[in-house]
Amino acid sequence: EARCHLGRTPFLAACAAGQPRALEAIVSAGANLFAEEDGGPGALSRNAFHLLEASSTERHAACVRWLARLLLTSEDQEGPFRLVALLEAPAEVAGAKPPTCTRRAIARALQ
Predict the structure, then answer these.
(1) Fewest 10 Å CB contacts: which of 23, 50, 80, 94?
(2) Phi then psi dihedrals of residue 20, to 5 deg
(3) Partner residues linked to 92 by β-bridges
């Protein structure tokens, strides 16, 4: 999958920008929902929910709600478990695991 200079796939870029319509289109085209940033050595390795948590706009919250709903209603029996795995995953920096968890993103979006 193509990546920008920040190591983001189009899916991750749409999440970071808080673009729900772009996110839906990219997912419809077959994007990997479990992609992580690959910014190189020493850079954060973040998933979609990490990027969505970084901003507290209504657009980002709409993306969180849409993505969570998509995973929860997936025909794939693993969808809910994958959602939990994404939410529980810490952002990694050069092997260290700082206390950056994505549960805050979904809690804020569902308020």
Answers:
(1) 94
(2) -60, -40
(3) 45
Q: Identify which of 72, 45, 56 has the alpha carbon closest to the alpha carbon of residue 104.
A: 56
Q: What are phi and psi of 96, to 5 degrees?
A: -80, 150
Tens digits of residue pLDDT in 44-92: 678 888 888 878 789 988 988 898 888 888 777 777 777 777 777 766 6
| Interval 10-52: pLDDT, tens | 999 999 999 999 999 999 999 998 888 886 666 667 888 888 8
Amino acid at 92: E
Amino acid occupying residue 106: I
Specify whether the CB–CB gap between 49 and 43 falls below 8 A: no
List the structure tokens of 74. Answer: 């997936």
2 CB neighbour count, 10 Å cutoff: 6
Q: Using CA atoms, how far apart are residues 24 and 100, in angstroms rounded to an integer?
A: 26
